[in-house]
Amino acid sequence: MTNPRILGTGIAEGLLLKPVTYPWALDLYNQAVANTWFPHEVQLGEDLADFARLTDEERHAVTHLMSYFNPNELLVNKALAFGVYPYVNAAECHLYLAKQMWEEANHCMAFEYVLETFPIDRKAAYASHITVPSMAAKEEFEVKFIRRMTEQTLDINTVEGKRDFVRNLVAYNVILEGIWFYSGFMVALSFRQRNLLRNFASLIDWIVRDESLHLNFGINLILTVLEENPEVASDEFAEEIRSMVLDAVEMEEAYNRDLLPNGILGLNADYINQYVKYLADRRLEELGFEPEYGVTNPAKWMATANDTLQLVNFFESINTSYEVDARSSH
């Protein structure tokens, strides 16, 4: 058994980067730095003519996505700042988490840029995450886990404290970022499949590229905690984690019915929800579970963005790739 190292709250620990204990974390940090981008590098204004041609249903879908993504990028930052960073000892993990927090802020500004550029009712978009029950339910699900980390005393040295840490990671990295965000990305990118909103899609490509690393980091962190603390992974806890993912799928199904109540060209709620189930199966497998739904991927054009094991290859080949430092590419 490996001595527990990655978890802890010692301020004096984790002050030296070398020797690196978790090379995967430093590698993800280097990839994240190479991926640095800024929203206004995309000429969103060029999509205004496309936006004017959208149907009311399509405009509703874009507005709904903005309403959901905007506050939730900031919610992820709270989960990282209060629920992950204080309980991790390794310097390389702190480096990555600092970059991830900046990326979430950058995503928030990217979605603000969309709201500033497209003729979207910002007030209505902001209100939806409170007034639309399916959207509010998803948010409350997430808030419940971060509240446990911030408003009550969490002892990371206990088995239950470690389980709370893992619950929070599953809620944010696996469910929010790895399933719910990807579902929205697929809808956003579907417009490009019809040669619409191409610059908006480029912005989403860059966000997906960041989120793929967030997902990779989160799953590595979960698996490392479980490997170093085998007493955490009881049968009952495993079933609880699996149930969290299945509950999240049900919440997303309701949300997608509100997102696309009548469907748009080439896309309806059933199509998105099959994709959600496909994603959920991939995340379950990455966590070491058997898949639940056994469905095929209806959005074959999103195939290479789904699996963390394929992500690095995918993002090296994508033609919208953006790297600040080309020497960092693999």
What topology emerges from the helices and strands here?
Elements (H helix, E strand, L loop, with lengths): L22 H12 L13 H6 L2 H28 L7 H27 L4 H10 L1 H18 L8 H35 L4 H31 L6 H25 L9 H18 L21 H10 L13
Helix pairs in contact: 1-4, 1-8, 3-4, 3-5, 3-6, 3-7, 4-8, 5-6, 6-7, 6-9, 7-8, 7-9, 7-10, 8-11, 9-10
Describe what this molecule looks like in 3D.
This protein is mostly helical and 330 residues long. The chain is globular and about 55 Å long. The relative contact order is 0.14. Helix 6 runs antiparallel to helix 7, helix 7 (159-193) packs antiparallel against helix 8 and helix 8 runs antiparallel to helix 11 (308-317). Residues 305-330 have low confidence and may be disordered. It has helices at 23-34, 48-53, 56-83, 91-117, 122-131, 133-150, 159-193, 198-228, 235-259, 269-286, 308-317. It has a single domain, classed as Ribonucleotide Reductase, subunit A (Orthogonal Bundle), CATH 1.10.620.20.
Q: Summarize this, please?
A:
Fe cation 1 binds at residues 73, 104, 107. By secondary structure, the chain is mostly helical.
